[in-house]
Design brief:
The protein is built from eleven helices and five strands, in the order ααααβββαβααβαααα. The chain is mainly alpha-helical. This is Transposase. Pfam families: DDE_3, HTH_Tnp_Tc3_2.
Amino acid sequence: IVEKDRFQTLGDLRKQWTESGVETSRATVYRRVQEMGYRCRIPQVKPLLNQKQRQKRLTWATEKQHWTVAQWSKREMPKCLKSSVKYPQSVMVWGAMSAAVNAASYQEILEHFMLPSAEKLYGDEDFIFQHDLAPAHSAKTTGKWFTDHDITVLNCPANSPDLNPIENLWDIVKRKLRDARPNTLDELKAAIEASWASITPQQCHRLIASMPRRIEAVISAKGFPTKY
């Protein structure tokens, strides 16, 4: 039964044993599974990739295989984080990157927040901007905005959070928020700002420095999801 479907829970196994006439407790099922050499694990959730998407990921990674950490450092990586205290209260956040609802508002955020941030970080130097394939990001008007502002956008394959380290940065923020336990919207906003402020430049650098390893992992996995 276990080998037939590795994603079954102990409850599923107990139910099947009971239906076959074997009355037992959950603890007994756990012990028997352990005795047979199996271990209970929570499966990692990864994006479902079709063959075309895997090929695009593999091609993308192969093209970036020889990029240095210095090259990866010259990227702006936006991502949206939505946190809530109790439905329907919620807050959309951008941390020197971006948060968007539609193409128009996304472009306003780029104009009023990303450009000043890029000016402060890079001055007159060129940089490459990375964002995912959210509808607001891939809209034609957004593409025209980047062209008009002479900003190079890094084309990224779909369903590839493992190729954008900003995902890990937001995960750090969310983990810190679990300990804060805000009760009001104002407390939530304050907790998010405090969580973001506590992230060190060293943490950001480690995430950026992981890009060459991520690229190699995608190539080794032939486009399939990686541990990142």
